[in-house]
Amino acid sequence: MPVAPRDLRRLLGSFASGVTVVTYPLPDGGTGGITVNAFTSVSLDPPLVLVSVHRASRANRHLPTVPFTVNILAAGQRDLALHFSGQLRRPLVEWCRNRPSPRLADCLGYVDCVPWARTDGGDHVLHLGRVVDVEPGSGEPLVFYRGGFTGLAATGRPPARIRQGVPADDGPSGRWSESNGGVP
Questions:
Q1: DSSP H or E run through 83
Q2: Is the pLDDT of residue 179 over 80?
Q3: What whole-number distance in Å separates Cα of residue 150 and Cα of residue 143?
Q4: Closest CA to 141 of 15, 44, 20
Q5: Residue 28, phi-psi category: left (phi > 0), alpha (psi -120 to 50), beta (remainder)
Q6: What's the distance, CA 137 to chain centroid?
Q7: pTM for the full predicted model
Q8: All domains in the chain, ordered by first residue
Q9: Tell me, what DSSP letter sits at residue 82?
């Protein structure tokens, strides 16, 4: 029995994600941008990230051929997310244009990319970008959850940390398991 798109969308909406705006230069000297919450790291060597863009988006004409920046939005940048999704007309967008691809001012972080590959993703196109520069910031992220924007709820305890750069051991028989809380 096939899964109904609305049921899948409702379920996937329960998976909180960060909010980004992918920006890129236009041939006429202008700047394009699109709000994207389907953004993920793919590889550290080579450094690759993926953004998923709806097939009908104008961004698909440009992303395969120009450098682009993934601007990670901070908690107070909801209006930027709405603007670049076409839902809010905002008269002033502050830019940092001293890069191969323009950046939005005051974001939580930036990932500058050059096109690496693209592939079919059903009603979306998956764009892989080779990371050429990053700039982390500080603050709280804007989060997309159940069809709306929110922030992180403070728990009063520091976030759990995981070891980076360690090959994965799958399953409870590996070094990591739920029984030891994921602590090596």
A1: helix 78-84
A2: no
A3: 5
A4: 20
A5: alpha
A6: 15
A7: 0.80
A8: 7-148 (2.30.110.10)
A9: H
- Extract the tokens encoding 89: 């007309």
Distance CA 15, CA 38 (A): 11
Region of residue 97 (phi > 0: left; psi between -120 and 50: alpha; otherwise: beta): alpha
- Chain center to CA of 29: 25
Give the residue from 93, 104, 158 showing the smallest Cα distance to 135. Answer: 104
Tens digit of pLDDT for each residue in 43-100?
Answer: 999 999 999 999 999 999 999 999 999 999 999 899 999 999 988 776 578 888 777 8
For residue 125, the tally of other CB atoms under 10 A from its CB is 20
| Residue 3 structure tokens | 């899964």
Residue type, 109: G
Tokens read off for 39: 């953004």
